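Record 1 of the preview.
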Amino acid sequence: MTSADRRARERQELHDKILDAARELFATHGYEAVTLRKIAEAIEYTPAAIYGHFQDKDDLIRTLCKRDFDVFSAQLSTLQTVADPVERVRLLGHGYVRFALEHPQHYRLMFMTPNDLEHDEDALQRRGDPHRDGYAFLRLSVQEAIERGRMRELYRDADLAAQTFWAGVHGVASLQITHASDNWVEWRDIAARTRAMIDGLLDGMTTPAPVGRGKKAVQP
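->
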């Protein structure tokens, strides 16, 4: 390894370390409460080290969100080959909750931490691309189910149906992340709660597949 390669690797390692620390602080304390100085203190560097990688806090959080949404979208996009759109939506729901539970800090920042950042050009280019925009993939799957006559009349607005489904799985995921250790409630197994929410929503929103079609995919 050359000295240039080593410097590049060390720079990337610091870049990743900054993002990991920022993610945890933003998710724990909120976007507004976290400064670049606090992030620097968390990794035991000076603020100047962070400015060597990011222009300001907005640049940092945009970079962080893009990285996390890329991981999220890549996981969901593996379901593109599921032929039945209703079963694809079902598996998208399970994938969404699984991502949240495997990456709770990522999920907190992405879906549970408000910020008022405007979308930059790169983010806007991702919008509507089902390969890089998880919501676009969900909506596309719902629209396909509508076109195949699989959605009940009340849910033939693709955005309404997608947003209703999203709200349901988000509720399961966020409650698990924030309240799983609260013994006030006798929580049922998270897998059972996830299945109940997803199956209940889809049973109410869709019509049965024609005989001989739409065989359920194997649950993840």
